[in-house]
Amino acid sequence: MRLEKLALNGFRNYEWESVSFSGGTNVITGRNAQGKTNLLEAIYFLAYGKSFRTRFDKELVHFDFSSAEILADLYSHDREQTVGITLRPGSAKKILVNGVRKTASELSETANIVLFSPDDLELIKDGAAVRRRLLDNAIGQIRPQYQAILSEFNRLLEHKTRILKDWKEKPSLLETLDDFSDGLCRCSAKLIRYRASYTLKLNEAAAPIHEDFSGSGEKLGIYYKTVSSVTNPFASEKELYYEICAHQEKHRQAEIESGQCLTGAHKDDLEILINGNPARSFASQGQTRTAALSIKLAERELLLAETGEYPILLLDDVLSELDGKRQEFVLNRIGGGQTLITCCEDEGISHRTGGCVFFVENGRIKT
Ligand code: ATP
Ligand code: MG
Predict the structure, then answer these.
(1) What is the Cα–Cα distance from 131 to 184, expressed in whole angstroms?
(2) Pocket test for ligand 1, best of 8, 13, 59, 115 (most atoms within 8 A of CB)
């Protein structure tokens, strides 16, 4: 899969710009604040239908424009395809694939992307939210229906949280609490099965990469953690539903008293172990970077296995954060697919990749 041509109209600091990329490595270089990350953000949008930096699409529209457009020519699933996205503050985003209207979650049927950004270096040490986001984004790329379940889950969770916060002022709100809890248990059962099976595959793919990468045979382990009453996350949806309901029942009173949703898939996490020890507490800085990178490269391999094509890999400013040995490892490993790497002008990375070089300056791209 490759992005052949991209046009941006009124997207972030791009007014009217278009660019053609190579099917191999593309290095995007330039001084700070010129539009390198903005460019990757636009490309990311083609697969995820959202930004990786903001929840608010209106921030993506150029200050002087009333709408933003991302137009792409892609080669994927053995054919030329076009994706057109229009963002107009105040209206829903408009997504066209080959001229046909699509939803954001359907974009992954046409374009798949793996992004590695400095935020991903927090995968190992930060709170569970980062690791849940990794799972949600990665599974959404492979299973478009997952995103619909997750949206429904988030909608119910938001409602239930509001009930638990506001019932003291308006006790009648509690009448609908059990319906929302039930809906959440149903969605949780579905999410848990997807997440458990993805984690199993991620673990299998990331461990050999990490072992290779660390050079010292270190063992990386990634394990899925969910609601404590779930005995087997691979069980049938029905069994999971009953187990989650049991947990829910037990915590009903505590939820009402604390004003918080205490049970459900929104508390899921990944346990990451290096040589059997929790990486969150014991990993060194180097081990943290190695593990985060191995997980991202594994995500790329899983997309290849699932779709038969390498996804487009976006590396935003990460090479500069890695030492020479890790940079080499990444650069040697990314063959086979299309990659876009951003870096600052003076880093000399562009020469080492042997790829095409693009200079970004104030929202213009020069080759
Ligand atoms: P760095 O090397 O520091 O990461 P970068 O080249 O990746 O820099 P970007 O984050 O791509 O920089 O671009 C930042 C620039 O884009 C800033 O100057 C910012 O003001 C501008 N910008 C962001 N959003 C908009 C917008 N909606 N309209 C116009 N300009 C914007
Ligand atoms: Mg940047």
Answers:
(1) 20
(2) 13
